[in-house]
C-alpha cells in the first residue's frame, strides 16, 4: 500500500477496520500518564489527538478522562477519516473533548498537538507507508511532542508501541497481562508495523526477542512466586546483560518493559 498522500481536501489515509472495546488501550494510557506526565503538564497548549479511534469513540473518552487526572485542562480531539463514525461520536463531545473528520494531516487548523495516540492504525499499511505516516505526523507535533504508534490485541492484554518525537523514534515498549503469557516473544505478533516484518534472523528486534526469551527461561525459578516476579527478573537480566532498558522495577511490575529504539531499529 502506498504512503498516504494529499488529494485536495480529502483526509490522508484510509479507514481502519474500526474494532475497539472499552479499556482496550488502558495499558498504553497508563504508560503515557506515568511516563510523560511532565510533558503534558509543561505544555503551553495541552492539545492531544486520538487518531483513528474506530467505530466507537469509547477509548477516546477514556483517554480524555485519564489525561485529565494529569492535566485538568487537557483538550482531546478524536480524529477519524470515516464521517459516519465522526457523526456517531458527537453526542459524547463535551468541554475538552471533541471529534472531527481527518487523517494523518490532523486537520487542526494549524495547531500542533503535544501528543498523538495512533493505536491499531498503521497495521493495515505496508512498512514504507507506515514510515511515511510517521514523517507526516512528526512534522505536525508541537516542539518536544510525542507520537505513540502501536498495536494491541482485541482485549488490550498484549500490546507494543513506539514513542516517536519530532526528531525520530525513541523507545519501544512491550506490555502484557502476564497471567497466561507463554514467553515474551508471544508479543511479536503485536509489534508495530515498523518492526513486525523485521522479526527475522539478522534483525535487531529478532535478537532482542530471543534474548528476552532466554532471560525468561533463566528466570523460571521465580515462577513459583508468580508471573510478575518472573517478568521482573527477566527484565533485570536484560538490563544487566547490556540491553538499553529505559525503565525499572516500578514499570516492570506492571507487565511493561521499555528499551531504547536504537536497540531494535531495522537494519
UniProtKB/TrEMBL annotation:
The keyword Membrane does not apply. Keywords: Methyltransferase, Transferase. GO terms for biological process: methylation. The keyword Metal-binding does not apply. GO terms for molecular function: methyltransferase activity. It comes from the Bacteria. Residues 1-20 are annotated as: Disordered. This is Class I SAM-dependent methyltransferase.
Amino acid at each position: 500500500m502506498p504512503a498516504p498522500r494529499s488529494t485536495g481536501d480529502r483526509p490522508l489515509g484510509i479507514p481502519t477496520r474500526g474494532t475497539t472495546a472499552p479499556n482496550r488501550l488502558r495499558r498504553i494510557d497508563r504508560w503515557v500518564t506515568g511516563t510523560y506526565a511532565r510533558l503534558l503538564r509543561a505544555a503551553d497548549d495541552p492539545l492531544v489527538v486520538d487518531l483513528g479511534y474506530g467505530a466507537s469513540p469509547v477509548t477516546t473518552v477514556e483517554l480524555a478522562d485519564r489525561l485529565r487526572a494529569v492535566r485538568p485542562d487537557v483538550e482531546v480531539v478524536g480524529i477519524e477519516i470515516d464521517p459516519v463514525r465522526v457523526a456517531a461520536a458527537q453526542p459524547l463531545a463535551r468541554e475538552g473533548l471533541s471529534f472531527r473528520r481527518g487523517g494523518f494531516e490532523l486537520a487542526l487548523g494549524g495547531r500542533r498537538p503535544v501528543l498523538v495516540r495512533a493505536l491499531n492504525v498503521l497495521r493495515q499499511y505496508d512498512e514504507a507507508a507506515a514510515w511515511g505516516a510517521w514523517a507526516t505526523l512528526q512534522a505536525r507535533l508541537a516542539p518536544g511532542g510525542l507520537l505513540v504508534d502501536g498495536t494491541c490485541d482485541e482485549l488490550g492484554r498484549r500490546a507494543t508501541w513506539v514513542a516517536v518525537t519530532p526528531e525520530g523514534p525513541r523507545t519501544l515498549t512491550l506490555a502484557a497481562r502476564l497471567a497466561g503469557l507463554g514467553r515474551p516473544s508471544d508479543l511479536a505478533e503485536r509489534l508495530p508495523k515498523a518492526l513486525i516484518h523485521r522479526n527475522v534472523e539478522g534483525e535487531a528486534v529478532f535478537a532482542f526477542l530471543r534474548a528476552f526469551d532466554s532471560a525468561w527461561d533463566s528466570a523460571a525459578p521465580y515462577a513459583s512466586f508468580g508471573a510478575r516476579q518472573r517478568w521482573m527478573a527477566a527484565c533485570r537480566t536484560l538490563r544487566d546483560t547490556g540491553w538499553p532498558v529505559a525503565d525499572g522495577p516500578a514499570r516492570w511490575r506492571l507487565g511493561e518493559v521499555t528499551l531504547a529504539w536504537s536497540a531494535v531499529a531495522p537494519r
